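Notes, Module 5: Reading structure tokens.

Key idea: the token line is not a picture. It is a compressed description, and you learn to read it the same way you learned to read a sequence, by spotting repeated patterns. We will look at two proteins. The first is printed below with its tokens.
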Amino acid sequence: MQERIKRWTRELMMIPGLSGFEGPVRRYIRGELSKLGIESRADMLGNLIATVEGDTSLPSVMLIAHMDQLGLIVRKIEASGLIRAERVGGVPERALAAQEVLLSVGGGRTLPGIIANKSHHATTPEEKYRVVPYQELYIDCGFASAGEALAAGINVGTPIVYAPNFVELAGGRIGGTSVDDRAACAVLLELARAAKDVLPTVHLVFSVLEEFNLRGAVTAAQVLQPDICIQLDLALATDTPDMGQRGDVRLGAGPVMSMFSFHGRGTLNGCIPHPALVQLFQQTADQENITLQRSAHIGALTETSYVQLVGKGVAAIDMGFPARYTHSALEVCDLADLESLAKLLIAALRRIGTRFSLDRDDYIA
């Protein structure tokens, strides 16, 4: 199982798929589902949905992993051929300078570029400790004029992502671009292999536009009207010196169940999981001898924040895997955590039977 998840994660991480431009990722996943004998369909926004029919008397389950990644988009081409860009999603400005990027120019073609970093020898003492706002940054693709850039296929609106990268680290850990959320897409593909062996109807949703204000999954949920939503994404690992006060989530220590998430700004949205799902995953983890970590954090937002409000309400929970250095060009996770997450999900789905209740009053706090 771990080798399959590793292969899928690696291949997915190497495919550019900025939020709103997920087509290459979707086509890859559709092909992998087809190899598993599972039909899938895309909706108007671009979500890829695969439904495995089950017992209609049981609660239906929607599982989500988002295909898109954060990045940039061309806003202006200077006369010199240098390129200005807008951020798409929560791109950290302090992690941008000197990064290699890839610009998708259509027809499956990409062009490399480098986000400029002022020459060190000309940097003033004040500039050495200043984070350059993205509005001041520019991308150098080697062009000598705006005409050359246009002729190469670059224009206003061209999507830009960190140059795809996959790094194998010690101890079964991997790093690279778009671990968020291609690793979860790989886990969902592993789940697809077992979906026919569970009782309830299962909807596998590979969503779009998550990094662009969590838009895609809401449309899918409005159509599917699930009873349960399980969202798969990273959880903030807190086992590095700079994160120790944020919680107790460790890389390699198992999957993570979110007990509380709150954005704390902007939308003021978040998710407190349904008690039936908290009990389901904790009891399943105990029975399967899987260590289940817990997280509670402010500052991040997931698709359950909106999906839980669809229709008559959806029982929702965020399940994930620990990850370090999130939203940077090189994120890190542990393959063992991905494998354990897949095993936990499969075992939990198999426990949703006729005696499973979503009545909150059956769960006394």
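Here is the second protein, with the sequence above and the tokens below, as before.
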Amino acid sequence: MDDMGGDQLYRIHESASAGRSVELRYTPTAADMAEGLRARGRSKAGRRQRLPFFLIGLVGPGYAAVLVSQGGGSAGSAAALTVVGLSGWAFALFGHRFMARSTRGLLAAAGECRAVVDGEGITVDCAQGSTHLRWSALSGYVETPATFMVFSGDKKMLSGALLPKRGLADPADQDVLRALLDGKLERI
């Protein structure tokens, strides 16, 4: 009896990941983090989180222009509003790089990591400790050319796991890892 609904792609993924686990060994870098965060920024949740910065980028200089055109306020106020607006644009466009750069020390302290992705979830062991993320605590993932970035379901906090593809022992493991993630999470 076929309980897979006849979906051939689902069967391929299910057979590729059935009872399997994938191990990754890697040293995380800020570049990996920036790539995963940039991809996350293109998702619906990422756009929603960046919206206030776009609004600040529009309102700040716009209000400064109104102040200057009406002769109200000082040049310092207009300049400050313009700087705030430009800062909003900078963070909206390059925030993923700022956030990745801010994790540089944490990533360096982690050293070499070992991640295991299996039917139970994702376990990451590094010099700083061990973390186990159950599938129920995760909401989705993004695949980029160099990484898989897995995100938690908490909309107020950015957390999850970074899984660089270079950490896979065999390039064929990418398909198994993708199948495991597709079977448990939503692709963002």
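Summary for the second protein:
- Residues 1-17 have pLDDT under 50 and may be disordered.
- The chain has two domains: 8-28+111-187, 45-101.
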